[in-house]
Each structure stands twice: as structure tokens, then as C-alpha cells.
Design brief:
By secondary structure, this protein is of the alpha/beta class. It folds into three domains: about 240 residues, 4-Layer Sandwich (Glutamine Phosphoribosylpyrophosphate, subunit 1, domain 1), CATH 3.60.20; about 200 residues, Glucose-6-phosphate isomerase like protein, domain 1 (Rossmann fold), CATH 3.40.50.10490; about 150 residues, Rossmann fold, CATH 3.40.50.10490. It is built from 18 helices and 27 strands. An eight-stranded antiparallel β-sheet has the order 3-2-4-1-10-9-11-15, covered by helices on one side. α10 links the parallel β20 and β21. The chain starts with a strand and ends in a 17-residue tail after the last helix. The structure holds glutamine hydroxamate. GO terms for molecular function: carbohydrate derivative binding; glutamine-fructose-6-phosphate transaminase (isomerizing) activity. Catalyzes the first step in hexosamine metabolism, converting fructose-6P into glucosamine-6P using glutamine as a nitrogen source. Its EC number is 2.6.1.16. It is an enzyme of class 2 (transferase).
Length: about 600
């Protein structure tokens, strides 16, 4: 979602601001803008669409100055036009915003009644006017911001520049992330450490309700009660190289191919290969006492949670409720005292999931999180942090984060089962052995890349595609359909194979490819029967199975994709690869923007 960067620099900042925006392009955006402070004026340049348009605008009309703010916008309120692009400005103040000001309507009406004129349809512009009013009334920038922040409801990260203060920026966060970067004689604001990677590694993460005044001479941070506070300055370890494509054509492709490495990396924190045991981080609550788990997540992370539900119930015999975060909070869920609430998110900032986490925390649940960013809000608010070690995920369509989440969740399920006395030491060893095999199996799955590329033309012309799976592979059918929708814009749905006959079978004809995920195992025969029902009605099947499965049931399929034969436990990790590759190659065949698909954003920080 929106990217924010601000620089108080020694030299000209416009180009460096645009560089920072480039590093946040992966979050998804639809317009961009820059504002510098120069000789008592706010110099603002904005453009619709990709950054190249802003670069062109800056070439034609430079924005000189050593202090500035910049933004990539993913529109929530108002079309992605130049006039709605940030920074929003009045005569005195310019600002960029990530989030939603939920009470913007009454604020806007009151401002209009007081004679203020608006030039955009955004919720954001009210903040510029409110601060401006205070400044025009003679307040200092700090006093102005202090007076306005309590009036804002919703979520925001803000970076604010002031016409009459060429050496000052003010930042604020509530609900949306914002970091402060400490450089050599320079200071920065950014949405995350990645945005600031080539500028500095020294980062302070603002906490909820914090706001910060940065000048050339230093940084002063205040909490929501306006009390001056210290926040640790940490070394981020994120390097600019993490945002390079290397030899790959797309970040998504790179990230699909990274999976054997990053899954191995992740597993190495959760298993002891020599002892063949599972090893979880220290926890200061009693896991044995957990009798119910509530899983909450969104999108691909939700599907990882669905797979985990099978594992928690099968191995540990602990009942699991699972819900999408945007629904969970508003249905007033019944939470059993002493329950574990488990949240899964790549960024650890997903607004819906974070709100659900806080709801569960307020209800006294123990909070566990599986996140890829260990400095994220969710990580900081959890009782048990279970990091994935996927490295920065840049492609908007999540791939490596998903398989790493599965690796962590499998280890957690095994650990819980052990603690609950439902798993013997021998069974634990067996599970660990299978997990250790996962990276090699992922490699074997990736070896089918060319074959999948060659069959993409069979799916690319389709208007609708169905994915079928059973048991823990049912969520993979959902994930396959989601990946295809996200990047190729083909309508796709995933179904539990047994559900087919209860409705979706009416859709079957020669124009609707049906992708069947059917690893050999206890559910194979049942899935194949459902596949036969499709074939009997002229449906075109792409069967994804292992050599045994294909030999038994592959005949009559339009195409087959062979996977290595793996234990059912790791099948969801391995079968993620062909559905990712299929979506990727279909999107490439269709010529869509794989890494920044239309309308989508990474790290969804608005509700
Ligand atoms: N609500 C603001 C900012 C949107 C945002 O944060 N997206 O990530 C707008 O629509 O401009």
C-alpha cells in the first residue's frame, strides 16, 4: 500500500525521494508525488500512474531543496488522479498519508463551513487543512500537530512539511507503520526499513500513537499522551540488494524459486535435524493448557491457516476456529477463556488482522503470530512470535511467505501435539524427517517449470478456471485460484472436490479448465472420482499428482503436471509450487504486470 518517505538531507533530495519510492513500488500504487521545501515555498510535483510519469514531471519541472516528503498512493478515497495524489498541501503545510481518516466527512464539512477550499476528493486533505489552520493562527508546527492528532479517527502514518520551516519534518503513526532513520547528518522518515535501505540501516520503529519531530539537529519522539519518549535505534539488516531481481524476469518468479532455500532457512529455526526434534522459541505461557485455537488471517495467509487447521486437529486433537480477519471482529466471536489466538501475516501490518489481534488481546486470549517481518506491529504485540525467514517479499502475489508459513505451522502443530501427549517421540522424529525433505521436494517441483510454461497456453484463453482439492490440499485449490485471479485476471474459483456436485459442476464445459490437485495418499481415490465426474461432462482436466497418481488417473486429462511423491504432511508445501508457476506463466502469456497487478497492494494497511 501507500509508501511514505521523508528526508532532511545535506544535498538535494528530490531524486533520492524518488529512489525511495521506487523501493516501495512493490507495495502497489496508482499515483505518486513529491514536495520539497525551498526558499519559503512548498514545491509540489505529482503524477498519475507509474513513477516514470513523476520522473518525467520532475525533469520538466524540478523540485529543488534539501528537505522533502514523497508518496506512492493506493487510492482509498477518490480516483487515482493527479489532484488526488499526495502530497496534499495548503499555503503552509504539505503532507503525505497512509491509512484512512474515518471521520473525514464531518471534519471536511466543518472546514468548508470555516471557508477552507478543497482541491481533492481524498480523506487525507482534511489533515492538511486542520494543521494549516493552527499554523495560520500562530501555533508552532509542533503545537499545530499536537492539537490536530487527537481529532483524527481511523488509521494513519503521516509525514508533514512546513513552508516556513525548511529544516523540519513531523511524522505520526496510528495503525499504519512509520519508522525514523538516522543517517550521517541526515534524518529520514519511511514506511519501513526497506524504503530507507540504501540511506541508513539505523532505524527506530515508532509505536502506536507516537509522533516525531525531526530536524537537522536531532529527533524528538512523543507518545500519544505527548510525553517525550525514547525508542530504541536498531540496525535493520535490510540491504538494498534484497530488492534486486537478479537473473529473474519478475520478483514473483525469483521468489517462487527461492522457496527451497527460504523454507530450509525457516525450518532451521524450528527443528533440530540431528536430534530429529521440533524446537520452538521460549514461551512464557503454558502451551499444554491450550484447548482451543482461533486462527485469523487474510488472503494467502488465510489459506495457510486453513492447512494448519487440519494439522492442529489431526496431530494435536485441538479444535480450531478459523476466520478471515475482516469478518472476525465484526461478528463478535465467542472466545473461550485460555484460548490461543493465532494470526498469520506476511507483513505483520495487515490492518484487518492487526485489529483482530487487538480484539483478541483485549479478550484475554494468548496471542501467537506467524509473520515475516519481526519488527512489525503484530510481532511486537504478540505473546509468541513465530517468524518466517522468507526475506523481503516484493511480488504482490505472495509465494515464498506462504510456504514458509506452512513450514512454521507444521512445526507448531507437531510441538503442540507433543505437549498434549498426542505424538510419540518416534512420530515426532518421523514428522521432522518429512519436514527436512521439504526443500528437496520443492526443488523437484520447481524442475517442472518449463513443462508448466509450455502448457500455460491451454489455460491463458479461459474466462473461468476451477481448482479442486481435498483435505489439506483443498486450501491449495483456493490458493491456486487466488494466484491466477491476482496476476492473470482470469476468474478462478477453488472448491473442495466433494463440493463440485453441489453446484459448480453446472459450470463445466470445454471452455472451463479444471485444475485438480491430487497427491497420492488416503484422499486420492475420492478426488479422482470427483475428477471423473467432471470428465464425464466434457470438462478439461489438468491433473497435478505424483508419478503413481498420474499413472493411475492421468488418462484423458488435457494436461498433467508431475510432482515428486511426498508424505501428505508436506504435500501442501510442494503443491504450492505448480499452482504458483501455472499462475505465473499464464500471466506472462497474457502479458499482465506480474509484480504489480492492477488494483492490488502489498501490505494492506487499510481496513
Ligand atoms: N486514504 C488515502 C491514503 C490511502 C492509503 O493509505 N493507501 O494505502 C487516499 O485515498 O489517498
Amino acid at each position: 500500500m501507500c509508501g511514505i518517505i521523508g528526508i532532511i538531507g545535506k544535498d538535494q533530495v528530490a531524486d533520492r525521494l524518488v529512489d525511495g519510492l521506487r523501493r516501495m513500488e512493490y507495495r502497489g500504487y496508482d499515483s505518486a508525488g513529491v514536495c520539497t521545501v525551498k526558499d519559503g515555498a512548498l514545491v509540489r510535483r505529482r503524477a498519475e500512474g507509474k513513477l516514470a510519469n513523476l520522473v518525467k514531471e520532475l525533469a520538466a519541472h524540478p523540485a529543488p531543496g534539501t528537505v522533502g516528503i514523497a508518496h506512492t498512493r493506493w487510492a482509498t478515497h477518490g480516483a487515482p488522479t493527479t489532484s488526488n495524489a499526495h502530497p496534499h498541501a495548503t499555503g503552509e503545510v504539505a503532507l503525505v498519508h497512509n491509512g484512512i481518516i474515518e471521520n473525514f466527512r464531518p471534519l471536511r464539512e466543518a472546514l468548508i463551513a470555516r471557508g477552507r477550499r478543497f482541491e481533492s476528493e481524498t480523506d487525507t486533505e482534511v489533515v492538511a487543512h486542520l494543521i494549516s489552520e493552527q499554523v495560520e493562527a500562530g501555533k508552532s508546527p509542533q503545537e499545530a500537530v499536537e492539537a490536530v492528532l487527537p481529532q483524527l479517527r481511523g488509521a494513519f502514518a503521516l509525514a508533514i512539511a512546513f513552508r516556513q520551516h525548511p529544516d523540519l519534518l513531523i511524522g505520526a503513526r496510528l495503525g499504519s507503520p512509520l519508522v525514523v532513520g538516522y543517517g550521517e547528518g541526515e534524518t529520514y522518515l519511511g514506511s519501513d526499513a526497506l524504503a530507507l535501505a540504501p540511506l541508513t540501516q539505523r532505524i527506530a520503529y515508532l509505536e502506536e500513537g507516537d509522533w516525531v519531530v525531526i530536524t537537522r539537529d536531532g529527533v524528538r519522539i512523543f507518545d500519544r499522551e505527548n510525553k517525550e519518549v525514547e525508542r530504541d535505534v536498531t540496525t535493520s539488516g535490510v540491504t538494498a540488494a534484497a530488492v534486486e531481481k537478479g537473473p529473474y524476469r519478475h520478483f514473483m518468479q525469483k521468489e517462487i524459486f527461492e522457496q527451497p532455500t527460504v523454507v530450509a532457512q525457516t525450518l532451521s529455526s524450528y527443528i533440530r535435524p540431528l536430534e530429529q526434534t521440533v524446537a520452538l522459541p521460549q514461551m512464557d505461557f503454558d502451551l499444554d493448557g491450550i484447548d482451543r485455537i482461533t486462527i485469523v488471517a487474510c488472503g494467502t495467509s488465510f489459506y495457510a491457516g486453513m492447512v494448519a487447521k487440519y494439522w492442529f486437529e489431526t496431530f494435536a486433537r485441538v479444535p480450531v476456529d478459523i476466520d478471515v480477519a475482516s469478518e472476525f471482529r465484526y461478528r463478535d466471536p465467542v472466545l473461550q477463556p485460555g484460548g490461543l489466538a493465532l494470526f498469520i501475516s506476511q507483513s505483520g501490518e495487515t490492518a484487518d488482522t492487526l485489529a483482530a489481534l487487538r480484539h483478541c488481546k483485549a479478550q484475554g486470549q494468548t496471542i501467537a503470530v506467524v509473520v515475516n517481518v519481526p519488527t512489525s506491529s503484530m510481532a511486537r504485540e504478540a505473546d509468541l512470535l513465530l517468524p518466517t525467514h522468507a526475506g523481503p517479499e516484493i511480488g504482490v502475489a505472495s509465494t515464498k511467505a506462504f510456504t514458509c508459513q506452512l513450514a512454521v505451522l507444521a512445526a507448531l502443530a507437531a510441538h503442540l501435539a507433543l505437549r498434549k501427549g498426542k505424538l510419540s517421540a518416534a512420530e515426532e522424529r518421523e514428522i521432522v524427517r518429512h519436514l527436512i525433505e521439504a526443500p528437496a521436494a520443492l526443488n523437484a517441483a520447481l524442475a517442472h517449470d518449463e513443462e508448466i510454461a509450455a502448457m500455460a497456453h491451454l489455460v491463458a484463453p479461459a474466462r473461468d478456471v476451477l481448482y479442486l482439492g481435498r483435505g489439506p490440499d483443498y486450501p491449495l485449490a483456493l490458493e491456486g485460484a487466488l494466484k491466477l485471479k491476482e496476476i492473470s485476471y482470469i476468474h478462478a474459483e477453488g472448491y473442495a472436490s466433494g463440493e463440485m456436485k453441489h453446484g459448480p459442476i453446472a459450470l463445466i464445459d470445454e471452455a472451463v479448465p479444471v485444475i485438480v490437485l491430487a497427491p497420492s495418499g488416503p484422499l486420492f481415490e475420492k478426488t479422482v472420482s470427483n475428477m471423473q465426474e467432471v470428465m464425464a461432462r466434457g470438462g478439461k482436466i489438468v491433473l497435478i499428482s505424483d508419478a503413481e497418481g498420474l499413472a493411475e488417473a492421468g488418462e484423458g486429462s488435457m494436461a498433467t503436471i508431475e510432482m515428486p511423491r511426498v508424505h501428505p504432511l508436506i504435500a501442501p508445501l510442494v503443491y504450492a509450487v505448480p499452482v504458483q508457476l501455472l499462475a505465473y506463466h499464464v500471466a506472462v502469456a497474457k502479458g499482465t504486470d506480474v509484480d504489480q497487478p492492477r488494483n492490488l497492494a502489498k501490505s494492506v494497511t487499510v481496513e
